[in-house]
Amino acid sequence: MENRALDTIAIIGAGICGLSARRILKSQSRPVLLFEKSRGVGGRASTRRGDGWSADLGAQYASLVSPTWEHVLGGDRKKLTPLESLPPNAHPRFVHQDGMSKLARALQGHGNEGIRFESRVVGLRVDPQGLWQIGTHTEDVFSAAAVIVTVPVPQALDLLQQSALELVPKDAQVLGGVQYQRSLSVVLEPGEGETDFPAVWRHPSATLTGIFDQSRKGLLGGGHVIVAHVCDELSCELWDHTPEAILARVEAEVCAVMGGSQWKALYLHRWRYSQPKAPLDTLFYQPTLVGEKSFPPLLLAGDAFGKASIEGALVSGEAAAWALLGSR
Question: Measuring CA to CA, which residue among 152, 157, 179, 150 is closest to residue 318?
């Protein structure tokens, strides 16, 4: 068991970044432990299904320029719908007809080998053999030779603090400066007096960063619903309000934009870390920890490094994985 731990790489977070890192490591026959606090993969590539509807709550489309997508999607490539309502000269964007969560499942591949769902990492420490000891909220402990942390940077910093792991001042300043926008994501269905509008309507008002018609943009079998994303400022203002109060306010904001048409809110999701405000100009980050002893590799990756997008998360995870493979 310990010999296996010498080769094992642990990944925290099963979003696009964590899954892409896992895929690279598995392709090189490295044992992987992937910890995910929720019941499924995808992170902000999230598709919700309700009574007669389905909707993408986070990412609404992706550029899919990496050759990785062609490889992992296989026959599912025929289910990619090009987005039509784009600015002139914009790079093509695509929607998966069954929801953007399918991109995450394509990266996951078949089976859940090495993935521990509903397993929240609460502590990291180094044992006398120089291995990471990874503790979860269920008091289980796992060993790994290296760790890739792909959760949002503030959560990664909280984990290091909980683990009594101190960053050198330069890294603490750089990583501590990474800030995220909050976003309330609300699914709504049409009422009376619906007006025509684009499938993807970016920044329709000062309070909404986007209105996305799920069927018009290419999501199949989901009924006619829209998803409204609320701007950072209003999301912060409403964050701790009751769901009923938030839904009523968003209904009013959407109806005002639609010229008086009526929309009924169906579902609310709070994205505490919706999107990094200013991603760092590096594909991943290897911080230096304060201490007399040397530490095994610890990398931070995700859409806060490089580009704030699904594509950026994919590339960041791959780069972090290859960096670890090259260092051992």
Answer: 150
CA distances 196 to 119, 132, 254, Å, are 44, 55, 13
| Residues 153-170, mean pLDDT to the nearest whole number | 98
Pair of tokens at residue 156 = 């990664």
Three-state SS at 32 = strand
For residue 37, give Cα distances in angstroms to 14, 26, 97, 166, 321. Answer: 9, 21, 27, 24, 21
Report the DSSP beta bridge partners of residue 186.
228, 268
Complete DSSP assignment for 107-137? HH-SS-TTEETT--EEEEEE-TTS-EEEEET
pTM value is 0.95
Q: Where are the alpha helices (DSSP H) in 196-242?
A: 214-217, 232-238
Contact between 271 and 251 (Cβ < 8 Å)? no
Residue 261 has a pLDDT of 73
**Rounded CA separation 232/228 (Å):** 13
**Cα–Cα distance measured from residue 56 to residue 34, given in angstroms and rounded to the nearest whole number:** 24
**Residues 123 and 110 sit within 8 Å (Cβ to Cβ):** no
Q: What is the pLDDT of residues 170-228, one digit of tens each?
A: 999 999 999 999 999 999 998 766 667 889 999 999 999 999 999 999 998 778 899 99
32, two tokens: 């992987």
Greater model confidence, 134 or 220: 134
Q: Which helix (H) or strand (E) holds 269?
A: strand 263-276
Q: Give the number of other CB atoms < 10 A from CB of residue 267.
A: 18
H helix or E strand, kind and range, residue 172: helix 169-176
Distance CA 33, CA 144 (A): 8
User: Half-sphere exposure of residue 245, counting CA atoms within 13 Å on the CB side?
Assistant: 8
> How far is Cα 124 from Cα 118, in angstroms, rounded to an integer?
18
